[in-house]
Amino acid sequence: MKTISFWLIFSLILGLAPACSNKENKEEKKPTPDTTTRINIPVNSINPYTIVDISPMDISYFPADYPILKMEKTISTLPLARIVYSRPHLQGRRLFQNLLKYDEPWRLGANESTELELYTDVSIQDKKIKAGRYVLYCIPHADTWTVVFNTNTDSWGLHPDPTKDLTSFTIPVKQTTNRLEYFTMVFENTATGTDIVMAWDNLEARLPIIFPVK
Description:
Blueprint: H1 2-28, E1 57-62, H2 66-71, E2 81-86, H3 95-99, E3 114-118, E4 122-124, E5 127-129, E6 132-140, E7 144-150, E8 165-189, E9 193-210
């Protein structure tokens, strides 16, 4: 009986050993999760280089889309004008209830001063304006806007320096059926040149420019 028991136990051990070995091998062959190729970016990731502004900068050209036309080689002359400005947006607010005040200067945008660059001499309301760079700002009234040309370029636009005002123009402002979320400045063709269109919320104002002046 002892002999039989010994061989029985020995056989059972031999039978179990390969199974244990296979189980261990299978466990060893399980793939290790590859965490080196996964990048978890936080939803509110901070830009380590600069603050991301909620009022994006934009450029409007006259002729419209001038840089594209230049790269397509469909135009070889310089542009006539361009505007560089930042575009604030309403974020659920109303323009003259929450953001602007009548009869107080406004930079016609956000952040740095809005700048108009003229590549040629022009005429605006019978006034001759030389080619160059100018700060634009506005004094809005209920029925008109006063658009001011200022020479204090490369400046922050919240507090324009009135001692550097060059000239000003009074233009009508009207209500439209639009309600623009972002402040917008574009050039629109006219029979004599272009209009600088300034629109935000449900308001629109236009400053006519005549090109060129001989």
